Amino acid sequence: MEASMSPISCLLGSLMVLLSLWVAPPASATSAIYLTEVEQAAESTAVVVATIGSARVEVDPKWQRPITLTTIHVAEVLLGSAPEKLTIEQFGGTIAGKTLFIPGDARLKRGERCVLFLRQVDGNWFLTAMQQSKYEIHEAARQVLLRRTLSDGLFVRTDKGLEPLEEPPHKPVLTLRRLREELRRSFSEKGARR
Question: Of residues 34 and 74, which shows the higher confidence score?
Answer without folding.
Answer: 74
